[in-house]
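Homework-ish question, so no full write-ups if that breaks the rules, but can someone show me the predicted structure for this set?
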Amino acid sequence: MATILYALPFLLQGFLITLWVSALVVVFSLAGGLVLGVGLVYGPRTVQWLVRLFSDCIRGIPILVLIFVVYYGFPPLGIAINAFWAGVVALTLFKGAQVIEYVRGAISSIPKGQMEAGKAIGLTFVQRLRYVIFPQAVRRFLPPWINGVTDAVKGSALISLLGIVDLMQSINEVIGRTYEAMPLYLLGAFIYFAINYSLSLTSRFVERRYAYIRD
Amino acid sequence: MNANQQPLLKIDDLRKSFGQANILKGIDMAVNKGEAVAIIGPSGSGKTTLLRCVNFLETYEEGSIRIDGQEVGYRDGGNRQRRGETDLARMRAETGMVFQSFNLFPHLTAAENVMLGLTKVRRKPKQEAREIAEHWLKRVGLDHRIDNLPSELSGGQQQRVGIARAVAMEPKILLLDEITSALDPELVNEVLDVVRQLAEEGMTMLMVTHEIAFARDASHRIVFMDDGKVAAEGPPKELMAQAGSNQRLDAFLSRFRTSHLH
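A: Not a homework solution, just the prediction itself:
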């Protein structure tokens, strides 16, 4: 117990870093994945092909390899990047590729007639997406996406391997000083679980909220 | 109809193919303002494709479709450049379309379905759009369903919302694509009554239909399509009379004489 009280201030800092990294990854991957996902469904053939290539490549690489590739691979290309941003970029690429697939799946589930009905009343492409397609697709998009957010939180623990003092790394550091591994790892596991369980609850709530459309 | 008035819809030598299959093989057609024209013909004759070309849901490469003198899918000028997205949307707003499968927006109420085009395309204030929506929903007999979601409506009611959504935009021409084909038989008439009334009030209409009796009663002119071409056309009575001399038309109509017309 004393160990845990001693550890908490250190863990709090790591916890905040973990949340910050997760938030950045979630926002960037959502924005990028939405655009590329729409490109994959509606874009010209070359765009579709490029997005498909990107998504398949990224999803075929272990996330840890991706992190090291960005961290060690970008500087020789002349792109200066520190450990923190290397971690964010790598996780964003990984998450973004998943978002692309969620977007594709959600949009493809909308019947073709919806786009046509939108065209027929004179809506432009952007208006059709905004008022017709997205409000319907969001119901299919949200549950897997929120589950994906929990992946991002868990996956962010890997950036501790670049020496970033996130929740995982701060646990390791405290263990380095106290030599009490088990209680601290349990505590860490509990904190990760608490974040992700609350996300899962949100996901279930959202699913119920958007249940208005009959299949 | 004034003889030297230019037709509202003018289709000239329209050709369309999907890969190797020629669907439309040179269609010429004209629809005057206030006229209701029915297109009949066997499946695969190109009726629906023709209708979908009129609001550019299908692209056409050869020939011309003009509404009020303006080419539908391509910019004016000789080099046949496809209209841009905004331009195309503006052209499409001039036509209304009612679909076989209704295609109502399932996340919006009946009123919101009608209002979407009014607020986003016609840029009307919400209040005014709501009044127009209520007006048209009452006109199609849905006073009590204005704030219901499509999933809470019967097929016939959904299709009447579809009609209200299209006519509320005050299109120059209304396109109806087999609008009763997906309905249970007992719901067909409530939809056809609405269309009949619109025709009587002078709404310009081009409709693809399998309801021969309806085409005969409600349209000013019937076009019989066969194998991607206009095989016969004329006022309903004249067309029916042509059946004796036109083998394909006779064969097509005889199916309905035995089964549908009673």
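Now go work out the reasoning yourself. Hint: The mean pLDDT of chain A is 90.
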